[in-house]
Amino acid sequence: MEFLPQIVITVLSVVLIPLIVQGIKIWRNKANPEVGLQKKVVTILSFVLSIVAAVIWAGVILPPFAGDPLAYIQSLLTIASVFFTAVKGVYDFILKSIFEQLGWV
After folding, report:
1. Taking the CA atoms of the chain, what radius of gyration do you get in angstroms?
2. Are 95 and 46 in contact (CB under 8 A)?
3. pTM (2 decimals)?
4. How far apart are CA 100 and CA 105, in angstroms?
5. 30, 82 contact by CB (below 8 A)
6. DSSP string computed for 19-65
7. The pLDDT value given to residue 71
């Protein structure tokens, strides 16, 4: 994961992912939801967590509006494309780690 600094990977691996895994295990024991619902919840949590990690690490800087709405929308879409490319790597890392720890791989 060359686009994330080591500190972000460490915080995700050591703090946040084990907390999510324990929360899912507690939820599984108390509510006994079906595995499909558990996987959907984990997927949504992983996506939200990856966006938050990417925003904290890289930030989001919007371009200034220069008067042309189409050019502005194009620049926003370019920024979103680059941003979500980075988010996908973080998301894959988080989701794979959680699924492995829960034994869903």
Report:
1. 17
2. yes
3. 0.79
4. 6
5. no
6. HHHHHHHHHHHHH---HHHHHHHHHHHHHHHHHHHHHHHH---PPPP
7. 93
Q: Which residues of 24-58 are buried (b: 16+ CB within 10 A; e: fewer)?
A: beeeeeeeeeeeeebbeebeebbbebbbebbeeee
Q: Which residues contact 49 (CB under 8 A, 6 or more apart)?
A: 12, 16, 20, 90, 94
First-residue to last-residue Cα distance in the chain: 20
pLDDT band with cut points at 50, 70 and 90 for residue 73: very high
Mean pLDDT of the chain: 87
Spatial separation of the C-alpha atoms in residues 62 and 65, rounded to whole Å: 9
Q: How many residues does the chain have?
A: 105
What average pLDDT score do residues 27-51 get? 90
